[in-house]
């Protein structure tokens, strides 16, 4: 009898896993954070961009602070141009390095649109793409047979292009799939009237 209880407790623990994604309700709709980690290549690329950006910013200040900058005539103008070019490149590299790696999907029920957003390290969002509710052709669950995970995605205008929303088990994704389908279908029915 104790073996059955122990087995039942293990089974219950297996069912009640925490979901890897997060849904946050906001006054204009809701945000879906997938919870997937960023690929190593993106993190490595951001680290390299940060290093190069700091090096270029240091070189920019070094060129600007040189005492000959103000006394060389034509060479001073060339140095100022080089400093501006290096400074702009450094600014872009540092911006990319500070950009976040997690993509969020914002479902805005007031403006009837879905936004793919990447938040930077300080929380400021950068919109990657915007889709109107009418452009969404369906809400799909794709089961990966190898990993046992399920992907929730939105179909774009009945094409092969999809918008990745979240990954988890089928039981975890069903309520979110139903909510997305209800919101998208309600909006299309309201426009048909």
Q: Main traits of this protein?
A:
three-stranded antiparallel sheet, single chain, 46% helix, 27% strand, disordered C terminus, 193 residues, 2 domains, alpha+beta, PH-domain like, five-stranded antiparallel sheet
Give an account of the 3D structure.
By secondary structure, the chain is of the alpha+beta class. It folds into two domains: 20-36 and 107-192, PH-domain like (Roll); 42-98. 46% of the residues lie in helices and 27% in strands. The protein is built from four helices and eight strands, in the order αββααββββββα. The chain has helices at 2-15, 40-65, 74-98, 170-192, and strands at 22-26, 29-33, 103-108, 113-119, 125-132, 136-143, 150-156, 162-168. The strands form two sheets. The protein has a five-stranded antiparallel beta sheet, with no helix packed on it. The chain has a three-stranded antiparallel beta sheet with strand order 6-7-8, with helices on one face. Helix 2 packs antiparallel against helix 3. The longest helix is centred in the N-terminal third of the chain and has 26 residues, at 40-65.
Distance between the termini: 61 Å
Strand content: 25-35%
Shape type? elongated
Tell me which CATH architecture of the largest domain applies here. Roll
Radius of gyration: 25 Å
Main β-sheet description: 5 strands, antiparallel
- CATH class of the largest domain, anyone? Mainly Beta
For the record, the count of structural domains works out to 2
Q: SSE order, as H and E?
A: HEEHHEEEEEEH
Query: Strands of the largest sheet, in order across it?
Result: 1-2-3-4-5
**Number of β-strand runs:** 8
| Average pLDDT | 77
Helix/strand class? alpha+beta
Helix content: 40-55%
The CATH topology label of the largest domain is PH-domain like
Task: Note the quaternary state here.
Answer: single chain
Tally of helical runs = 4
Low-confidence stretches are 1-16, 187-193
């Amino acid at each position: 009898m104790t073996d059955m209880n122990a087995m039942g407790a293990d089974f219950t623990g297996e069912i009640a896993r925490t979901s890897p994604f997060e849904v946050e309700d906001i006054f204009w709709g809701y945000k879906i954070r997938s919870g997937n980690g960023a690929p190593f290549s993106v993190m490595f690329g951001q680290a390299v961009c940060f290093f190069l950006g700091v090096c270029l910013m240091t070189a920019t200040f070094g060129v600007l602070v040189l005492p000959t900058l103000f006394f060389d005539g034509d060479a001073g103008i060339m140095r100022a141009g080089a400093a501006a070019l290096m400074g702009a490149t450094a600014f872009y590299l540092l911006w990319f390095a500070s950009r976040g790696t997690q993509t969020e999907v914002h479902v805005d029920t007031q403006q009837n649109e879905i936004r793919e957003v990447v938040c930077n390290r300080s929380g400021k969002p950068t919109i990657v793409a915007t889709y109107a509710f009418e452009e969404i052709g369906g809400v799909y669950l794709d089961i990966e047979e190898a990993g046992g995970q399920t992907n929730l995605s939105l179909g774009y205008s009945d094409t092969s292009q999809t918008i990745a929303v979240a990954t988890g088990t089928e039981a975890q994704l069903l309520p979110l799939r139903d909510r997305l389908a209800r919101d998208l279908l309600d909006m299309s029915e309201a426009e048909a009237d």
